[in-house]
Amino acid sequence: MMQESRRRRPPAEGFLCGETLAKDDDDCASNVCFHCNLPGPDDVTLQFNCREPSCGALEGDEAAAELRDDQYAVDANFFDKGYDLAGATGFKVWTGSRLLIETLAWPRDDDDCDRLHAIQKRLCDGARLIELGSGVGVVGTYLSAIGSQVLLTDLPTLVENAIYGNLLRNESITTSTSYAPPSDTTLCPSWLTPDGIRIRKGWASSTPLDWTHPLDEQLTKEQSSSIDFIVASDVVFLASMLSSLLDTVESIFEASSGNNPSLILSFQRRDAKDGEESVAFTTVDGVLAAVKRRGWSIDCLAWRPVKVKKEVEGVVTDDKSEVFVFEIRP
Predict the structure, then answer these.
(1) Smallest Cα–Cα separation from 327: which of 247, 242, 265?
(2) pTM beyond 0.85
């Protein structure tokens, strides 16, 4: 069911990503600039400061940045409250971000299912999104640029040292183009105030959100009850993260029940050498089982094969895996 041939999604024609080494006058903790273009003829490119090169987010001969050993900065945030090695992975761009953007923002008119077409249209028409585990903010910023209202969330360290700065960076990029937003969308939506930022056709804001703490202690009532879609990309690669993510999702489902929200989740198979029996890594079967236990439905909107490195008994070899975009509904 999860790998139906009709859901296999080739790279979107016209969607280009790349990365370069940051200039000397950039933030010293941000060594790489990841960039990707928006749909349409205006040739607008979003840019994101990252601490490390992306992993699996580039296709073909797209430009990749390479850091020398001495260019990898010591993690100055390692001892921040609530920050751990899983949080540190948020400072780079991962495979699932690309497929999620292509699936939601680059329609394939003759191939996408009716449900996906409906989601794509709503995202361009001001749908209200919360992104969980935003990392450097690529997905949330991109969806706001095509017309959504997005609240980007992650651990405080990521919000303060990556997401907020990247939102400001792309506010400058997108407002310097010739695009003029419709007059009825020029005011920041109240649920994103007071720190909402205009990103081309939509709006974005950011706030810390820890999945291990109650939702109502971290979001306002208006924020938690305003959600049409939850989006998350490459956020549950460790098995220990899945339960807390779904607890948070369940709280949002309940708070925004009047909007019939759903979770759109990108997930890369990372079963390592143990396959579906892996204890450390979240597996596809693990995701399906966890969703079923909560009585929710899950559908595959898109998937793509990817090349990965696999280590067995100290030997690293090339291997194949898959990345999926799921929609999960209560």
Answers:
(1) 265
(2) yes
